[in-house]
Amino acid sequence: MKFTELEKIGKGKITKLSRDAEIKELVTDTRNISIRSGVLFFAIEGINHDGHEFVQEAYDKGVRCFVVEKEIKLPDDVNILEVRHSLSVMQWIVTYHRLLFTYPVIGITGSNGKTIVKEWLAQLLDYKFKIVKSPKSYNSQLGVPLSVWQMSDQHNLGIFEAGISERGEMARLEPMIKPTLGVFTNIGEAHNAGFESLQQKANEKAQLFAGCQKVIYSAAYPEIEQALESVFSADTELIPWTVERQEKGVVEMIIGEQILSLRLKFSDPASIENSLQCAAVLHVMGFGVEMIQTRLDTLSSVKMRLEMKQAVNRSYVIDDTYNNDLYGLEVALDFLHRQNQKSKKTVILSDLYQTGLSSDALYQRIDDLMRNLNIHRLIGVGTEISEARGLFHTQAEFFASTDAFLSSDFQVQDEIVLVKGARDFQFERVVERLEYKAHGTIMEINMESLTNNLNYYRARLRPEVKLMVMVKAFAYGGGNFEIANLLQFHKVDYLGVAYTDEAVELRKSGIHLPIMIMNASPDSFRFLKEYNLEPEIYSLEQLFDFNDFFEGEEQVPAIHIKLETGMNRLGFKSEELKRLVEVLKLHKRIKVKSIFSHLAGSEDPRHRDFTLKQGRVFEEMSDLVMKALWYKPLRHLVNTAGIDNYKAFHFDMVRLGIGLYGFDPVMSEEQKLSIVSTLKAHVSQVKHIKEGESVGYGRLGFAKRDMKIAIVPIGYADGYARAFGNGVGKMSIAGQWVPTIGNVCMDMTMLDVSAVEIKTGDEVVVFGESPTIQDLASWVGTIPYEILTSISQRVKRTYVSG
Fold first, then answer.
1. Could you tell me the CATH number of the domain that includes residue 557?
2. What are residue 525's phi and psi, to 5 degrees?
3. Which of 51, 73, 91 is the last residue of a domain?
4. Which residues pair with 308 in a beta bridge?
5. Worst-scoring range by mean pLDDT, 179-183, 186-190, 465-469, 546-550?
6. How many Å apart are CA 609 and CA 80, to the nearest integer?
7. In this structure, is residue 96 part of a structural domain?
């Protein structure tokens, strides 16, 4: 497709044309620019993002073709198409692109299971077809066009998923995917806010299959059946399936007039349903029951997200081993590039399959990607990538197989390693070799959820209001550097920590954002100038100590003045302001970066009058200080709860704390933030005990009947307090809450699992989606802050994205 063709397709106007160009890649994010020519950059304006701010960066990376919604200034060697709505134009371009291909396309929608069914179908069919599919869960208004654009003559089957959150969206996705075979996985409450009823949502989702020859669905959902029957004509064959019988891992399903008896690898209800959806697709595609069973036996669990784990020798490993398509590699490399914990970056990569490119073109493109993203070392595993070794300019080693690589003397040291491999290379063995195994309990931090929470609060600020994010106390237990690195990437204005050593560690790890220290003692002043840190000054005595320490120096660190407005903690009182102003006037080399205070009860409506009084006092006191200065410092007062509750007090900056990590005490159930932290363990042992036997130290737990208990490797040394013992606390196994029994020990806890099927190694959720941190806090009469910050640093943190 030529750039000049876009004017007609996109219903816009070419405002600048240097020379016509062939469009090879569509990009909305400058981080994903991976080739040097043929890139079309779409500047999309959204609630929290304006792509027009990045057109210069795109130009600097070699882009010369742009779709924009408003006038931009660039040199004359570019092509610019100006349109009303860039995203709509991208969708029209991809709709045109889709019409070029006649091979079958499977379209998948539903409330849950879309990505799993898509990935499993790709696993089941990849031996026979050259498949193009959605990367990960790219199923949105933006994700679908980026997915479908990958279609080429080198493929002979497409598998794409589509998700919607409000009415009218599927009508825009259907022409791009234009599936020939449809799969409607299920219908449920997920993303319900944009619809009046479950039936309305089913009707909207069914629009994906408007041109389908056949649609597969489970008859267990009457809303789906009604939606399909009301929408489609006799030309579309509707193919329901039902479960006839299920026992001991064998399921009999009825599809049409056929009964399929299948042995399934997975036992949880969601995986059973997803497996049967896949079996139904294979049946409709003409596979016999024996071949369906053979293919089902090959299924493996799908990792839905990028996971960053602590590795040996002060390193990190990013685990992305479940597939190896080109677009997924670009996403993973971008994720690696954004990590600044270590300067050295290594990629362990297998052969890539079904990319639609020749071997030379493929590996030349990968080499370009790695050079653009400053990857230091490549380990190539497989015959194809080894044969292409001459195309790589990055430092590289090559191995014919995973076994050959694991037999080598490969070492990692102070680096971040991305492990990205096709399923049959079994790269989980590589991750197992690299992973640091200090503790069986893991705190999983979802970086996408954290970003969602950040954007929620940003959307509530006026454009000129700055944002300080608190990363004190090990970022509320989440890992201060990893989270600070994400915040730096998203360009927050300030970070806040409690103590100087926290700030120094962030600087040593590559964080360059301004950092305010809330409790900088005089003996730590020596680090302030060296690491460009800014202390809170809360008393005349501390101010004199600060001035004395930097006496005779022309440049001194900037400071933040803390005012006492009713919290009765740290801060200058009103009667001290006159002296404070005198000192600041006398020592003009001391620059006041901000003036702030802290609300004592912003989360509690009972204290509204007091909070309003605090706001007025702060305004009066800060005005007094500011009038004495010859410049205007920032002012900030509100915390997480105050961002929503007291918008009149946003001033120049707000401070976001616990809300970033998924909890805001003023929010209703309908406004829930995304869960960021999940604390997980695995069952160490299951044992049966007799009625009357005791459990644990102090013999406080007794079996009131013959029972089954599970021992889990988490105790009060990990931050799971003794107060949770003896049935007060509960954990989740296979979605079912089970109570503690006996006292919580230093390193382990016992659970009553009499009512659940369980075995050694099964996953146990201490907190996350269920039970939540709020649940744990309520059980022991504390607040979520304490639960989060109590988790010991000996508990390994894993960072997931996507």
1. 3.20.20.10
2. -60, -30
3. 91
4. 318, 799
5. 186-190
6. 55
7. no
Mode of pairing for the β-strands spanning 214-218 and 181-184: parallel
Residue tagged 């997915």 (tokens): 147
| 147 and 284 belong to one structural domain | yes
* Count of the separate structural domains present in the chain: 5
CB burial class (10 A; 0-12, 13-18, 19+) of residue 711? middle
Q: What is the mean pLDDT of the chain?
A: 90
Set 472, 562, 680, 730: catalytic member: 472
Give the residue among 249, 251, 260, 261 at the shortest CA–CA distance from 283: 260
Catalytic annotation present for 472: yes
Task: State the catalytic residue, choosing from 96, 697, 708, 796.
Answer: 697
Residue 181: in which H helix or E strand, if any? strand 181-184
Beta bridge partners of 634: 594
pLDDT digits (tens, 9 = 90+) for 743-754: 999 999 999 999
3-30 in b/e burial notation, b at 16+ Cβ within 10 A? beebeeebebeeeeeeeebebebbbbbb
CA gyration radius, the chain: 29
What are phi and psi for residue 150, nearest 5 degrees? -70, -15
Q: Known catalytic residue: 24?
A: no
Q: What number is the average pLDDT over the span 767-792?
A: 93
Last residue of a domain, one of 437, 470, 505: 437
Query: Do the annotations mark residue 31 as ligand-binding?
Result: no
Phi, psi at 76, each rounded to 5°: -75, -10
569 annotated to a ligand binding site: yes
Q: Which among 560, 526, 530 is positioned nearest to 543, based on CA atoms?
A: 560
Q: Global pTM?
A: 0.67
Single-letter amino acid, residue 797? R
